[in-house]
Amino acid sequence: MKKFQVISGPFIKDAGNTSKIMRHLLIALMPIILFSFFKNGILPYVSNKVTLLGMFYPLIFILLGATSTVLIEFLYARLILKKEDDELKHYMHSSYSVFPGLFLALVLPINTPISILFFGCVMATVVGKLLFGGFGNNIFNPALIGLLFISIVYGPLIAERGGYLNALEMDAITTATPLSNVATVEGIGTYETLVKPYGSLYNFLFGTIPGSLGETSAILCILAFFYLTIFKVIKWRIPVVYVSTVFAMTYVIGGFNNLGIWYPLFQILSGGLLFGAVFMATDPVTSPTTPIGEILYGLFLGILTVIIRYFTPYPEGVMVSILTLNMLVFIFDKIGARARFNFNKAVPGFLFAWIIILGLSLYIGNQYKVSAKKSDPEFNILEKNVSGDTTNYVVTQKGFSGNIKASIVIEEGFIKKIDILEIKDNYYSKVEKENYIEQIIDAQINLELVDTVSGVTITSSAIKKMVINTLKDYRGE
Amino acid sequence: MARGVKIPSCKKDTLNEKIVSYSKPKKIYIPLICQNDTNITVLVKNGDYVHKGDVIARRKGALKIPIHASVSGTVKAIEEKPYLNGQNVKCVVIENDFKEKRANVVKVKRHINNYSKEEFINKIRDAGIVGLGGAGFPTFAKYDTDAKINTLIVNAVECEPYLTADYKLIQEKCEEILEAIDAVLEINGIHEAIIAINRNDTKTKEIINTFIGTYLKIKMVEVPEVYPMGWERTLIKQIKGVTYKKLPSEKGIIVNNVSTIYAIYEALKYDKPLIERVITFTGEKLNKPQNVLVKIGTPIKEVINSLGGYKEGEDICLVAGGPMMGCAVESDELVASPTLNGVLVLEKNENEKATECLRCSKCVEVCPVKLAPVLIKDSLKDPDNLKYLKPERCIECGLCSYICPAKIKLRDYVIIAKRKV
User: Fold this and answer.
1) Contact A11 B323 (CB under 8 A)
2) Other CB atoms closer than 10 Å to residue A138's CB: what's the count?
3) A216 and A334 housed in the same domain
4) Least confident of A240-244, A435-439, B47-51
5) Residues A26-32, mean pLDDT to the nearest whole number
6) pLDDT band at residue A26 under the 50/70/90 scheme
7) What is the C-alpha separation between B67 and B90, in angstroms, rounded?
8) What value does the mean pLDDT take over residues B233-250?
9) Each residue of B3-25: b (16+ CB within 10 Å) or e?
10) Overall fold of domain B117-270
11) Are strands B151-156 and B88-96 parallel, antiparallel or unpaired?
């Protein structure tokens, strides 16, 4: 006797499945991970800035992030859900727990301590995912939840440890990432103050600028976008609309101040915008599912990012934009589903978005004025006495822990004397031992030649910056 | 509108096999159902002798359409048998006397163009002709319209994978089909006919090209091999670039399946009602996949046995219809009916466990009627919201379930929602 199986159709299925989608995502991330290793590991190593272990540190860091979230979810499934054998295997196979940790590691600064990375992974998995019922049910992007907790709780601590700068970048004159630099520039900035300190826009394109581990290389994000779109992994409309919106708005803002095309390009190439747009905003679980919904989502992501970048002290904006709009995905879907049958249903949404885009761009364009003057917010002049050819400065510069206070004497354009008045660093003796101050005075014509003192990198580079800032003020730059 | 999705065609097993006929069923079971309507008057009783082609039942209501005996013999009983929708349906059982007796001597018409429009409509109604593509809509009703018809589209697309019944019919009966199209055009004063065929179906293209030369009003149009290209709305949009509200006649268009056209031919030429059709028998668990001309009411089991039966193995999945829209039936007692275009004998599906929806939006992208299946599934418990998602528009093409990477059977959810609205 034959047994007839009665199931509902269709009786053929597309060969694609969730695991294949996730595999493509992993493949798309590989070049970005390798580039991070190259930029933050190999380059500093060949310049003798880090040890062999330091060279592999970026890879280890990313790997630890990825394995942490897997481990946490495994423990949850095993100990709390009490799953065993096949069930456990199936759970782990279909929870895709490697991604929150992997993404989190890629959006963190290299100077994040491992313990904090782990804290973020716990938050990403528990708060970002499991509280909502696991994979497929979460409202917020888990990796960004992890990043949010880390930024709030440990942001200052990580900044103190050097923030986004890798060992090589710490020695360069740049003070921070391009976007945090924007905040220190008065007004809207110029090519000289925004782009020049990092080389040219090509550096932004290829990714040799300071930033989180995975976000700096725009070209690799763009390649990943095409790869993921061709294999139908991501909702391509979201990144396209998101990035275009930021581009259009900053184009208008820049245009108002007669800045060239470089300005909107600078805005979309800096920070985590491209990485966030391609990998985070398109996270399928937490983004809208209808074409119109996706487009509106992209528009408002762009608007929100511009608002945050120009009106708040936070230079980045991508994380907060995505997390905020994650909450509203159901509204975008509601509009999107109705607009499928009748486009008019989406018209108010589009009108609203376009009015904000236009109004906001014009407003910001009008408010901001170009200013070439660049000031380092961590640098302060307490006293400045001019007597004849001699100028006496008392200045402070933010150092490893609190401010470094020093008096600097400049005579006929040259530094004669530097006295450190106050410093909080237990290892300062090392700086003294190396005759670092003397080195600076000797090499004052080209301070970039002075190497920082290893082991007291932050303090020594802060001293150098303090001297550069003082000289700038003296020359009226 | 989404332009359709490329899906594997799986047609090669039967594409090079000629249509055979199976004409020796001992008993036939004529299903008393028309377009899922079982409101049918039976005109015969136990013990009656019926000729082949006699009317044995008639559908009630507005679209009265007769149902005919497909053999000559004695009416035995009314029994329930599985129908292609998976449900049991009452059937008139006729014991075949193998004499193939007709009530009247058949007069073969030499010129099938010599009908008035009224005679034509009466003819195809009395012949019980319904849309053989699957919908089963009475064909005469399409022509019995006041709207001005400019174009007849002959649908030979057959976008369901595995099925080749229409392909084979047009290949083997091309001259007859062209003749019938020409007659339909002339009788109804229609300007042009377009035969829509699959772009990759080179053999059919060649055959049509051989014969089409003498028919100036008939042309052939190639359409991409995507699913559901054979659906009326998709096909009209593809060929004419227009959409319509309820019926294609609004835009002066009639669409007929190529098998329906052949049935029209036989009705006009031989006065033959709709008592047989070509069905594709295929699938990896069938010994000899082939297209078979089968009398309506023939038990499928007999045809399968005549094709060498099933392959080894106990567990199979027997599907009535194509793999996308077809329905798995409980047994091979299934009987042939006018809208049964295929029988698939497939391996047991190891029923891949559905995983969590990852909201990838693929089901939304592929839906030919612009539904958002994922949102419909989410809103099943929220009738207010469900209303706006219009699940009632679903044509059950199956693409959402087909494409889902989490293997969720979205169509089932949409059908549930459809009933709720």
Assistant:
1) yes
2) 22
3) yes
4) A435-439
5) 97
6) very high
7) 13
8) 92
9) ebbebebbbebbbebebbebbeb
10) Rossmann fold (3.40.50)
11) unpaired
Percent with pLDDT over 70 in chain B: 99
Query: To 5 degrees, how large is the angle CA A314–CA A317–CA A320?
Result: 105
What is residue B1's predicted lDDT score, i.e. its pLDDT?
44
Answer yes or no: do A356 and A240 share one domain.
yes
Q: The whole model's pTM is what? A: 0.84
What does the pLDDT look like over A444-473, one tens digit per residue?
Answer: 777 767 778 877 888 888 888 888 888 877
Asked if residue A5 belongs to a domain, the reply is no
Residues A168 and A178 in one domain: no
Distance of CA B119 to the CA centre of its chain: 25
Q: What is the pLDDT of residues B369-408, one digit of tens each?
A: 999 999 999 999 888 889 899 999 999 999 999 999 999 9
A interface mutation test: which of B329, B359, B400, B421 has the most A CBs within 10 A?
A: B359
pLDDT of residue A146: 97
Give dist(CA B273, CA B266) in Å, integer: 8
> Is A349 found in the same domain as A388?
no
Q: φ and ψ at B130, to 5 degrees?
A: -125, 165
Domain check: are A264 and A162 in the same one? no
Pick A10's closest partner by Cβ from B351, B359, B398.
Answer: B398
Count the domains in chain A: 3
Is A450 a member of any domain? Answer: yes
What mean pLDDT value characterizes chain B?
92
Q: Where in chain B is the domain with CATH 3.40.50.11540?
A: 117-270
Q: Pick from A374, A398, A414: which residue ends a domain?
A: A374
Q: Are residues A167 and A183 in the same domain?
A: no
Residues 288-347 of B with CB under 8 A from A: 310, 314-319, 323-332, 344, 346
Question: Considering the domain boundaries, does residue A432 fall inside one?
Answer: yes
Please indicate, yes or no, if residue A6 is contained in any of the structural domains: no
Q: Which of B5, B285, B355 to mutate to test the interface with A (most CBs of A within 10 A)?
A: B355
The yes-or-no verdict on residue B351 having pLDDT over 70 is: no
- Please give the distance of CA B365 from its chain centroid, rounded to a whole number: 27
Together in a domain, A156 and A216: no
* A213 and A324 share one domain: yes
Beta carbons of A4 and B316 less than 8 Å apart: yes
Determine the pLDDT at residue A186. Answer: 64
The 10s digit of each residue's pLDDT in B305-331 is 999 999 888 889 999 999 999 999 998
Amino acid at B331: S
How far apart are the CA of A247 and the nearest CA of chain B, in angstroms? 26
Domain that holds residue A398: 379-475
pLDDT at A251: 95
Considering just the CA atoms, what is the radius of gyration of chain B in Å?
21
Out of A146, A172, A198, pick the residue that ends a domain: A172
d(CA B401, CA B413): 10
